[in-house]
Amino acid sequence: MNRILMIDDDVALTELVKDYLQLDGFEFDASHDGPAGLERAKSQQHDLLLLDVMLPGMDGFSLLQQLRKTSNCPVLMLTARGDEIDRIVGLELGADDYLAKPFNPRELVARIKAIFRRIELVQQNKERQVTTITVHDLQLDSASHQLTVQQQLVQLTATEFQLLDYLMRRMGQVISKEELSKQVLGRSLQLHDRSLDMHLSNIRRKLAQHSAQEYIQTLRGSGFRFVPESDPC
Predict the structure, then answer these.
(1) Residue 204 and residue 215: Cα distance in Å, rounded?
(2) Which residue ranges carry the DNA-binding annotation (predicted)?
């Protein structure tokens, strides 16, 4: 049974979300301020975090930044409606997805289930596929869920790892944003949804810290592809 921690100072909202998630068989914990939420996230085992941006004591961005130093637990950010800056910053700091407030609890449950389906699919594929992909100084190990570049461990979130794994297994192929959204994020591509762009930007930034090779190309109007050698788009 998957265990979820919600960190949000809106007690009524957390109770509502708790009711919906428990009806679907999830275990549920809640904290209502930043410091207590961070301590609970670090000291207890959870399968997913629901994290509000505006929190007393410590904002959600600072909490996520601290958490990512030691944990790759999937995080779904809860942001103010229409605040694109919040969404972009959350994804840059390592959030796996976001949902704007106010939201339909059923949509939240659907987003959570999509994240868990992605994780389960990765686990199932480990036994059927080659677990290690090596390209020059880059090595992706799906069994240990680790990426190394020049033998240095690179920290990726669960979503970032799954995106890179999907692209590397289709090396040289142009993959559309719609396909990536459906196959990796578990949902159809939405208008003005920049989450894929931000996740891929994070991957590029992390790779660039260890290698000058540009592995991921953006082909405007077409999608993305992973290339083993630098190649003009």
Answers:
(1) 8
(2) 130-228
Q: Which residue has the higher pLDDT, 83 or 46?
A: 46
Of the candidates 169, 36, 49, 206, the residue with the CA atom closest to the CA atom of residue 112:
49
What crossing angle do the helices spanning 60-67 and 84-92 adopt, rounded to 10°?
Answer: 10
Provide the 3-class DSSP secondary structure of residue 167: helix
CA dist 119 → 1, 44, 48, 77, 183 (Å): 14, 20, 11, 18, 12
- Do 73 and 81 form a contact (C-beta atoms < 8 A)? no
pLDDT in tens, 42-53: 999 999 999 999
pLDDT band at 76 (very low <50, low <70, confident <90, very high): very high
pTM, rounded to two decimals: 0.67
Q: Which of 78, 209, 81 is nearest to 152 (CA)?
A: 209
- Tell me: pLDDT of 98 over 70: yes
pLDDT, average across residues 47-65:
95
CB 58, CB 79: distance < 8 Å: no
- What is the rounded CA–CA span in Å between residue 189 and residue 211? 31
Separation of CA 180 from chain center: 13
CB distance 223 to 174 below 8 Å: yes
CA distance 166 to 149: 18
